[in-house]
Design goal:
This protein is an all-alpha fold. 97% of the residues lie in helices and 0% in strands.
């Protein structure tokens, strides 16, 4: 009888662990995907700001050279 109750306990414990792992795994996958998207978005935004600053510097330098 004791062996049977241990077996039932192990089956229930395993099923609870598997049920817990499904949402944890899904959440982990969504989190890593969201983190990658946010990093990519930040990099694109920073690159665009650097390009704008470079473009403004060139425009300012060009207009300074030709107005003198």
């Amino acid at each position: 009888m004791l062996l049977r109750s241990k077996s039932i306990f192990m089956m229930l414990w395993l099923s609870y662990i598997l049920i817990l792992l499904i949402p944890v795994t899904g959440t982990f996958i969504l989190y890593t995907n969201m983190e990658k998207n946010m990093v990519d978005n930040a990099n694109r935004s920073n690159l665009a700001m650097l390009e704008q600053a470079r473009s403004r510097n060139r425009t300012t330098w060009y207009s300074d050279c030709h107005t003198a």
